[in-house]
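Progress against Task 2.4 (sequence-to-structure conversion) is shown through the following example record, which the project officer requested during the mid-term review.
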Amino acid sequence: LLVEEKWGPLLRADVGTSERVHDYAVTSAGFVRAMVLVSDSGSALAWQLVLGAVVLWLLWRQLPRLALFVVIAAAGSSLLNSVVKTSVHRLRPILTHPVAHEPGLSFPSGHAQAAIVGYAVMLLVFLPILGGVWRRTAVALAELMVLAVGFSRVALGVHSLCDVVGGFVLVEAWVRSLTVVIIGFRRT
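Structure tokens generated for the chain above:
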């Protein structure tokens, strides 16, 4: 609603953050290359490949309900993102010297959303078989990568800060609703 209403403080935060990070990106080709790599790791295609492999592994392990959960989590998040993007219809930031280009609408960030869903699903599937330091490392790495993907989208100038935060908030609600499904799976 704040994006739709073009709330002043939000717009100022978006523009200020985008300009500062983008000013640095324009002068640093190495930074841009690093941000493209991080951004690509959070793309829909990257997560389709990773989660597709997880689904195949789960089916091989004879865990079809968990495999179905992974498919529903990823597909549902993608559908939710498309519906919200179409509803809000926010255009991407317009920059004088863009370092990257992306088609489509801006709010919410699909990369940010895909990263949270992807890492959350990976944690839900694999944390039960990890122990001790590996478990803590996996959680910390997932959190770091989610933040890095979100930052990379702003740094590349293809999203504003609120697009990324919007993706995080939207998918947080989606992951929480999936938690209810997980509880239901465990009870049956």
